[in-house]
Design goal:
The structure holds two protein chains of two kinds. Chain A is α+β, with helices and mostly antiparallel strands. Chain A has a single domain (about 5-140), classed as Histidine kinase-like ATPase, C-terminal domain (Heat Shock Protein 90). Chain A has helices at about 20-35, 35-55, 85-90, 100-105, 110-120, and strands at about 5-10, 60-65, 70-80, 120-125, 130-140. Chain A has a five-stranded antiparallel beta sheet with strand order 1-2-3-5-4, with helices on one face. In chain A, strand 4 (about 120-125) and strand 5 (about 130-140) form a beta hairpin. Chain B is an alpha/beta fold. Chain B folds into two domains: about 20-310, Rossmann fold; about 330-415, 3-methyladenine DNA Glycosylase II, Chain A, domain 3 (Orthogonal Bundle). Chain B is built from 15 helices and seven strands. Classes of the chains: A alpha+beta, B alpha/beta. The interface of A and B includes residues 31 and 48 of A.
Chain lengths: ~140, ~425
C-alpha cells in the first residue's frame, strides 16, 4: 500500500495578515521530505494563488495536503460566493478584483490560470452561493 | 544539547553568529585570526570594514583610524568604503541592463547567501554576481603595494577587520570562486583595545584628506540602497523579516522591486556580533559621517562604469544549493518518518521546556525519528511511563498480597 502523509489547514477569508502562511507551511513540509526545489516551487505558487483567492473572495476554506511518493495533492474547499462562469475565470487577465486589491498587488487575473500552469492536473468545481473546490495535483518525478 | 554539550548541526547552520551572542555559557567561540597568524608575510595591510569607523568617539575621523592602524602592527591600512562606492556604481550598471531576474538580491551578507543556499535555492539566480567591497579593496590594495614596493602577491597579507564571524567563513569558502584576495580576518573586538590606546596617543584627526563617499553609509540598514539611484529598492534586516520577504518573492510577488538589500543582523553590520559599540550609537555615527563626507564621491563614475564593462567587478559561476538533509533517504521513507514524528509529538507535553536538550517538542520528536535521541530523554514521557509502571506494580503487589495474606489480615496490618 502506498504510504501517504496528510495534513490540513484552515484559511479565514479577509485575513490578509495570515494570508500566505498555508503555502509557506506546505513548502516547509515538502522541503523536509526532500522534494526537489522545482516541484516545491510549483506547489507553493499554486497553493498561494488558491489561498489568496480564498482570502479575497470567500468566507473560509479548508486546505488538505496529501503527499505520496508519486504526487502531491492539494485540495482547497471553500465556503463562499462561488464562481458563476468558471471558463471565464480561467481566462488570463480576467479579474473581479476591486481597485483596492489591485493597488495591493493582487487580482492581476493570473490566479486560476497560474494554478493550471503549475499543476499536472487541475480541476475546479463551483456552486454559486455555496463555494468552490479546487483539486490540484503535482507529480513527483 | 547532547550529553550536556552544545552541538552544532552543520547542514542547518547559516553562520549568523547568534549562538555566539546568546549562549550564556559562551560555548561558541568564533574562529578569527590573531596577529601571530600573519608573521609569515613581509608586508601586512589592514582593511577595516567601514563599520570600524563608527566604533570610536564621535569626533574620531576615519582617516585618523586608518593612520592609527599603521601603528599597532600593520604596515598599512586601506579604506574599504571607497570600494563600496565603486561596487554600488557597478550594481547600478547591472540593474540598468535589466537582463536579470527581479528582484536582484545583494550578496554581501554571507549569512543571507547561506540562507538562500540552504532554504531558498530557487532564489540563487537572484543574487547579484558582483564582487564584494572587501574583495575589490584587497585586490586593489595588494596591486598598489606590489607596484610600489616590488613585492610578490604571496608576500603581502591583506587582513580584513570584520564585524561578524560570517565574514570569516566567506573568506575561507567564497561563493563562486576558489580563493579570496584576503589572507585573514580579525574581529573588530580583537583589534579594538589596541586601537583605542593608539588613538589616545595619536589624536582625533591628522590633517590628511578625509575618507569620503556613499560607501560610508553601508554599515547601516538602507546604506546600500541609499548609495544606488535605483528606485523601487528595499532594505530588510533580521532573519525573520528577510525570510518573510523571500517567501513573498517565491510566491511571485515583488516583481516591481529592482534591488533588495538584506542583512541577517537586525541592525545590519553595526550590530554584528564582533562589534564593540552599541549598534544604535554606531548607527548615529555612521549617519553623521555620511552627512559630513558622504556626498563627496571618492570615485570617478565614468571610470568605474568602464571597469564594469570590462568585467572588473563580475563574478562568474553559479552558487550551489546546500539543502538540509531530508528527514528520510527517499520520499517514501520520509513519509513514514513524518508519520512517526507526528505520533511521537502527540505524546509530548508540547511546552518546549528544553530539558531534553532540544529547543522545542517538535524538534525533539524529529531527533527521535532521526535516531539522534531516545524517547526516554523527555522527562515528562519518562514520568508518565514511570507512573503507569508504578501503578501497575502497586496493583500487582496488592493483588498478590491479597492472594497470599487474605484481605482482612492486610487491613489489620494497616490499622496498626
Amino acid at each position: 500500500m502506498a504510504r501517504s502523509y496528510s495534513d490540513s489547514y484552515e484559511i479565514l477569508g479577509r485575513d490578509f495578515i495570515e494570508a500566505g502562511n498555508v503555502s509557506t507551511e506546505i513548502k516547509r513540509t515538502l522541503r523536509e521530505l526532500g522534494v526537489s526545489p522545482e516541484i516545491v516551487r510549483r506547489v507553493a505558487i499554486a497553493t498561494y494563488e488558491a489561498e489568496m483567492n480564498v482570502v479575497m473572495y470567500a468566507k473560509e476554506a479548508t486546505v488538505k495536503m496529501e503527499v505520496t511518493p508519486k504526487a502531491i495533492r492539494i485540495t482547497v474547499n471553500d465556503r463562499g460566493p462561488g464562481i458563476p462562469d468558471v471558463d471565464l475565470a480561467m481566462q488570463e487577465g480576467y479579474s473581479t478584483a476591486t481597485p483596492e486589491m489591485r493597488e495591493m498587488g493582487f487580482g492581476a487575473g493570473m490566479g486560476l490560470p497560474n494554478i493550471k500552469r503549475n499543476a499536472d492536473h487541475f480541476t475546479i468545481v463551483s456552486v454559486v452561493g455555496r463555494g468552490t473546490k479546487l483539486d490540484i495535483v503535482v507529480n513527483i518525478n | 544539547m547532547r550529553c550536556g554539550k552544545a552541538t552544532l548541526l552543520n547542514d542547518r547552520c547559516i553562520d549568523c553568529g547568534e549562538c555566539v551572542r546568546v549562549c550564556p555559557n559562551h560555548a561558541f567561540v568564533p574562529q578569527t585570526s590573531s596577529f601571530s597568524d600573519f608573521s609569515g608575510f613581509k608586508y601586512t595591510i589592514a582593511l577595516p570594514s567601514p563599520v570600524f569607523y563608527s566604533q570610536f568617539g564621535k569626533d574620531v575621523r576615519p582617516s585618523a583610524i586608518l593612520a592609527a592602524l599603521k601603528t599597532i602592527g600593520f604596515n598599512d591600512a586601506y579604506d574599504v568604503a571607497c570600494a563600496s562606492e565603486s561596487v554600488s556604481i557597478a550594481i547600478q550598471e547591472l540593474l540598468n541592463s535589466k537582463s536579470n531576474p527581479r528582484p536582484m538580491i545583494s550578496p554581501f551578507c554571507p549569512t543571507i547567501v547561506r540562507l538562500i543556499q540552504v532554504r531558498y535555492p530557487n532564489l540563487l539566480d537572484n543574487l547579484i554576481p558582483i564582487e564584494s567591497p572587501m574583495e575589490i579593496a584587497a585586490r586593489e590594495a595588494k596591486r598598489l603595494k606590489m607596484e610600489e614596493l616590488g613585492l610578490k602577491e604571496h608576500e603581502i597579507g591583506a587582513i580584513y577587520l570584520a564585524p561578524c564571524p560570517s565574514k570569516m567563513i566567506a573568506l575561507k569558502c567564497p561563493p563562486r570562486k576558489k580563493h579570496s584576495f584576503l589572507d585573514g580576518v580579525m574581529a573588530i573586538s580583537e583589534v579594538y583595545p589596541n586601537l583605542l590606546h593608539a588613538l589616545s596617543h595619536a589624536g582625533a584627526s591628522n590633517g590628511k584628506p578625509e575618507i569620503r563617499g556613499l560607501g560610508l553609509g553601508w554599515p547601516i540598514v538602507g546604506g546600500q540602497v541609499a548609495s544606488l539611484k535605483a528606485h523601487d529598492s528595499i532594505a530588510i534586516a533580521g532573519l525573520t523579516d528577510v525570510m518573510r520577504v523571500f517567501d513573498e518573492i517565491e510566491n511571485g510577488k515583488l516583481k516591481d522591486i529592482q534591488f533588495i538589500e538584506c542583512h541577517s543582523c537586525p541592525t545590519a553590520c553595526v550590530g554584528g556580533s564582533l562589534t564593540v559599540e552599541n549598534p544604535y550609537i554606531a548607527r548615529g555615527r555612521v549617519l553623521r559621517m555620511v552627512e559630513q563626507f558622504g556626498s563627496q564621491p571618492c570615485q570617478d563614475r565614468d571610470k568605474i562604469r568602464e571597469l564594469y564593462q570590462k568585467n572588473f567587478f563580475s563574478l562568474v559561476g553559479t552558487i550551489a544549493p546546500s539543502p538540509i538533509q531530508p528527514i528520510g533517504e527517499d520520499i517514501s521513507k520520509g513519509i513514514k518518518k513524518m508519520q512517526r514524528r507526528h505520533q511521537i509529538y502527540d505524546m509530548l507535553p508540547k511546552i518546549d521546556c528544553g530539558a531534553c536538550g532540544a529547543p522545542t517538542c517538535m524538534t525533539f520528536a524529529e531527533d527521535v525519528v532521526r535516531g539522534e535521541a531516545e524517547a526516554d530523554e523527555c522527562v515528562f514521557l519518562t514520568m508518565k511511563t514511570f507512573e503507569a509502571l508504578s501503578k501497575n506494580l502497586l496493583d500487582a503487589v496488592t493483588r498478590q498480597s491479597k492472594k497470599v495474606h487474605g484481605s482482612h489480615e492486610r487491613q489489620s496490618h494497616e490499622a496498626s
